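USER:
I would value a second opinion on how I read folds in C-alpha cell form. Give me a protein, with the fold worked out from its sequence. Write it directly below this note and I will take it from there.

ASSISTANT:
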Amino acid sequence: MSRNVAREPRVVFGFHAVLSRVRADPSSVVEIFLDETRNDARARDLVTAAERAGLKVMRVPTKRLDGFYGGGRHQGVVARVHAKSAVDTVDELLETIEGPPTLLALDGVTDPHNLGACLRVANAAGVHAVVAPKDRAVGMTPVVSKVASGAAEATPYIMVTNLARTIDELKERNIWIVGADERGEQSLYEADLPDSIAWVLGAEGEGMRRLTRESCDILVRIPMLGEVESLNVSVAAGVVLFETARRRQAGRKAKK
C-alpha cells in the first residue's frame, strides 16, 4: 500500500507537542528554541526533560520564534525535528499489530485543526493509525502537531495515493470498512460492529466521496437528538471510535 508522508525536518511548536517529542523520540529532535523570557514551570520542565535526553535548549528572542511560523501561537517554544522513524505503509503497520486492528480513514479532511483533533481522539481511543488520501488531505504541519497535543508523535498518519484501492486491500485482510454517514440505514448503537474495523469519515458538510462511500461494507449514522444535522469530523470520530473501544472492552470482560 502507498507510502507514508516523506520524512523531512519539520517544525513542532507548543509546549505539549515539543515535550511529547522529547520524551517519546529524543533522537529525532534537531534543535529546541525557547523564548528567553520564559522562566516559568513549563519552561523549566522542558529544559529538564531536554537535558535528561542530552538535548540542548537555545534561548532566543520571541521575534526569532515568530519567524518559524509567521507569528503563530508557538507559546514560546519551537523545535526542529526529523519525522519519526516509523512504518511507511499500511501493510507494514498491520504486520506490527497484535489482535484486531482499528483504523481511522479520513476522506477530504483538509483543515489542520480538524486533523490534529482527529489524531488526538484516535490516539485516546487506541486507534492503530489514521489513513488519508494524498490528494484530499492536509499533511503533518506544525498546526496539526500542536492541536494533536502529542498524538501526532504517537499515532501513525499514513497518506495513501488511492484511498479506494487501500480500502479494497484492507478488505482482503478481513478488515471491515464501516462508514459514518448521516444516510446510513443502521444506527451506530444498533449496528453489529466487527472486531477488525476501519472507520471511514468524510469532511463536515461534503462527507465522503461517492466511490469511498460505495466501498464501505456498512454505513451507520450517529443518532442526532437535537436540532443540528451533523457533527464536526473530530467529534464524530470520537463518538464512533469510543463506541468501538467500549464494545471491545465489554467483549473482553464477557470472556473472563
User: Anything to note?
Assistant: The chain is about 35% helix and 20% strand.
